[in-house]
Amino acid sequence: MEERREAAGDRAIVMEVGREVGAVTQAAAILRAIAGARDALGVTAIARAAGVSPSTTLNILRTLVHEGFVALVPETKTYRLGLGLLEVARPLLNRSDVELLQPGLQPIATEFEATTTIWQVAPDDKALLLGRIVPASGIHIEFRLATRIPAYAGAIGRAVAAAGERAGQLPRATLRARFGAIRWHVPVAFDTFLAEVEAAAARGYAVDLGHLIRGVTSVAAALCDRTGRPRLVVAAHLFQGQLTEERLEALGLALRGLTARAQPAMFGVAEGVGPVQRGGRR
After folding, report:
1. Which terminus of the chain has fewer CB atoms gathered within 10 Å of its CB, N or C?
2. In the sheet that 216-224 helps form, which strands lie side by side, from edge to edge?
3. Residue ranges of the domains in the chain?
4. How close are the terminal C-alpha atoms of the chain, in Å?
């Protein structure tokens, strides 16, 4: 009986830890709203952008001002980010892209038993491998650090092309020329590739089913800067047939969720786009 009571207590603790605290969620939304604005905002504008009532917004703002996370501009009664945020964010300021993304990629590598990678989109239309994380167990795909591939090749290339087209920065003729220079293990027609790029733009991640590297399935999602230009790509690589269609979709959604959380923090909110809420919702 005592053991049963202790087990129930453990479950209660786990459930309690998993619950969200409304005031903290609202405070985070308010900070994102202020961070996403070019100028200091008033209470009403912050409340509207954050989706929080004006009275609650004002109370939370007073607390954030007291803690130094938000600064009040007395003359205009508007608010902007405070220096207190630098105090808590300082440990992250000098970290590399790999260090910032690794905590989000590690659980994906473990859950899907896939090698996860981080690629930098270089100005010379190449993608450079910055880092990789391998699953803890089982046979896995291996990549050598500093590997360079054409920026429009495989799932990585589809993700880059989707971001470029979405931002209006990739003319169709340019994409066709870049595509023609890629060596595929299993050839793919340009029209098929183009349709897959459009599908990637619609769902937020791209897939390559063994075309770039025979027998290897890759899934990728791009992180873009404020102008919409793709800067980094996170990807997962596994053996073809290793996952069902449902699990492959879950992998794609996991990568998309990671980019939705990381992109505003690393590159800022894209121009003309509202703050990203927790979990990738806008």
Report:
1. N
2. 148-150, 126-133, 115-121, 230-239, 216-224, 206-209
3. 2-89, 95-280
4. 48
Q: Which residue has the higher pLDDT, 43 or 19?
A: 43
Look at residue 60 in the predicted model and tell me its pLDDT.
95
Q: Measuring CA to CA, which residue among 231, 225, 219 is closest to residue 257?
A: 219
Q: Which two tokens stand for residue 248?
A: 């492959």
Give the SS3 label for residue 91.
Answer: helix
Look at the alpha carbons of 192, 194, 200, 203 in this order and tell me if their dihedral is positive or negative: negative
Using only C-alpha atoms, what is the Rg of the chain? Answer: 22
Query: So what CATH class is 2-89?
Result: mainly alpha
Could you give the CA distance from residue 129 to residue 132 in angstroms, rounded to a whole number? 8
Q: What is the pLDDT of residues 61-104, one digit of tens each?
A: 999 999 999 999 989 999 999 988 878 877 766 678 898 999 99
Could you tell me if 122 and 232 are in contact, meaning their C-beta atoms sit under 8 angstroms apart? no
d(CA 253, CA 240): 18
- Name the token pair of 96: 């590399």
The Cα 3–Cα 119 span in angstroms is 49
What CATH architecture applies to the domain 95-280?
Answer: 2-Layer Sandwich (3.30)
